[in-house]
């Protein structure tokens, strides 16, 4: 009893009370990783893989395997001319895939993009061939029509509540019918190889070995990465948030320079970098900036993560949905013009066949999730490269088209399985 009383007394006197523990500062794990050097990065890499955060690793690994297999089977696969053809032909489908990436980030789907691309080529041909309109003005009007069509689909999704699958399936049928109606008299219209059409054929801004050629483009790409990284580092340092150390920026820049100049040297042995590929890369950079660096891009990711949470956070869900489908329609029209530039004609077969499936497959194989909220604009390039490499490689081996379809389908299924397993692993590890 006396001991208890003593304890109480000393407590009242303030002599036996321990001081409250000092607050432990929270350290961003990214800082710890970078302070530990290579070991820290390796530990973080292992943690991400175990947590299901695979990123682009599976598709890049698949791409390396594809290159090795086809090069062993036919030593012309990695030749300058063949690589140039791969880059040239993936641009048209890639444009459609960029628009689809935006839609997939919402967790939706657009089945109309192939028909819209075919309709765009027909509209452009009618404007220029039938009515003699200025080709650049015709390009602008055609893309704007694609944007309006996409916004039309988005309106029924956002305002009326019609599922995107249904409204875009209706668009797939309806816009294909409108294209056939426009071409009903002849079945096809030739497009003059001049102006914007000549710009996206197999010519090159960076042609010939007597000038720097593709090295100019490689230098620009490396410089953009270096300057952008340094600016981002300075901005983060000023804000007091984690930033990439200069050593990491230099390493990334050096690796990009090695890859870029190697590809440049290869393409300079052919006809340089095709204009279509250059324009496609420019659009990719702009699209990536919009998705990752703007408020609009963050809202798109938010809607893909949770529609209801986004609505409660004050995001105008209908406006974002309509805007995203308008973007998809614009890119579908642009892709149709790229494909028309390859054939220099608009015919009743435009937008048909497996174009829609290949555009969706490119986005998904490249790493954009079908479940929404996760992906990158660069998926259109990586996935398109996988599909076009398979097609070109099998063509070199004189394989039947049926084999191409089966292999592409298997790769698409594998990509979706990896995405599903990755999401399940993230939920299990508490990182979803």
UniProtKB/TrEMBL annotation:
UniProt topology in membrane: Multi-pass membrane protein
Keyword Ribonucleoprotein tagged: no
Stated role: Part of the binding-protein-dependent transport system for D-xylose. Probably responsible for the translocation of the substrate across the membrane.
TM ranges: 54-74, 86-106, 113-130, 136-157, 164-183, 203-228, 249-267, 273-291, 319-340, 352-371, 378-397, 403-421
Name the UniProt record assigns to this protein: Xylose transport system permease protein XylH
Localization, UniProt: Cell membrane
InterPro entries: ABC_transp_permease (IPR001851)
This protein's UniProt keywords: Cell inner membrane, Cell membrane, Membrane, Sugar transport, Transmembrane, Transmembrane helix, Transport
GO molecular function: transmembrane transporter activity
Recorded GO CC terms: plasma membrane
């Amino acid at each position: 009893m006396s001991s208890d009383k003593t304890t109480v007394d000393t407590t009242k006197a303030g002599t036996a009370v321990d001081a409250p523990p000092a607050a432990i500062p929270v350290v961003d794990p990214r800082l710890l990783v970078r302070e530990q050097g290579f070991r820290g990065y390796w530990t973080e890499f292992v943690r991400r893989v175990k947590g299901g955060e695979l990123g682009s690793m599976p598709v890049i690994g698949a791409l390396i395997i594809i290159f090795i297999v086809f090069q062993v089977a036919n030593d012309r696969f990695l030749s300058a001319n063949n690589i140039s053809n791969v880059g040239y032909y993936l641009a048209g489908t890639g444009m459609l895939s960029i628009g689809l990436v935006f839609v997939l980030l919402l967790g939706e789907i657009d089945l109309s993009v192939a028909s819209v691309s075919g309709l765009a080529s027909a509209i452009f041909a009618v404007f220029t061939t039938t009515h003699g309109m200025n080709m650049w003005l015709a390009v602008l009007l055609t893309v704007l029509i694609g944007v309006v069509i996409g916004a039309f689909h988005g309106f029924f999704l956002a305002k009326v509540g019609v599922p995107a699958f249904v409204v875009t399936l209706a668009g797939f049928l309806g816009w294909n019918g409108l294209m056939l109606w426009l071409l009903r008299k002849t079945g096809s219209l030739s497009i003059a190889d001049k102006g914007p059409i000549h710009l996206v054929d197999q010519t090159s801004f960076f042609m010939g070995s007597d000038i720097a050629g593709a090295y100019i483009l490689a230098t620009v790409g490396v410089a953009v990465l270096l300057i952008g990284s340094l600016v981002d580092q300075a901005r983060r340092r000023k804000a007091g948030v984690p930033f990439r150390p200069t050593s990491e920026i230099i390493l990334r820049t050096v690796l990009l320079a090695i890859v870029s100049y190697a590809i440049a040297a290869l393409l300079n042995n052919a006809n340089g970098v095709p204009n279509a590929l250059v324009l496609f890369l420019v659009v990719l950079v702009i699209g990536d900036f919009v998705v990752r660096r703007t408020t609009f891009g963050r809202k798109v990711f938010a809607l893909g993560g949770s529609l209801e949470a986004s609505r409660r956070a004050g995001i105008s869900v209908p406006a974002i949905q309509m805007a995203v489908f308008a973007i998809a329609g614009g890119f579908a029209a642009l892709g149709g013009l790229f494909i028309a530039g390859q054939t220099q004609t608009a015919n009743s077969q435009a937008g048909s066949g497996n174009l829609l499936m290949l555009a969706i497959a490119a986005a998904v194989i490249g790493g954009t999730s079908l479940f929404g909220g996760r992906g990158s604009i660069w998926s259109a390039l990586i996935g398109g490269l996988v599909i076009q490499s398979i097609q070109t490689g099998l063509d070199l081996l004189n394989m039947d088209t049926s084999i191409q379809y089966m292999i592409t389908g298997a790769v698409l299924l594998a990509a979706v399985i990896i995405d599903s397993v990755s999401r399940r692993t993230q939920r299990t590890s508490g990182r979803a």
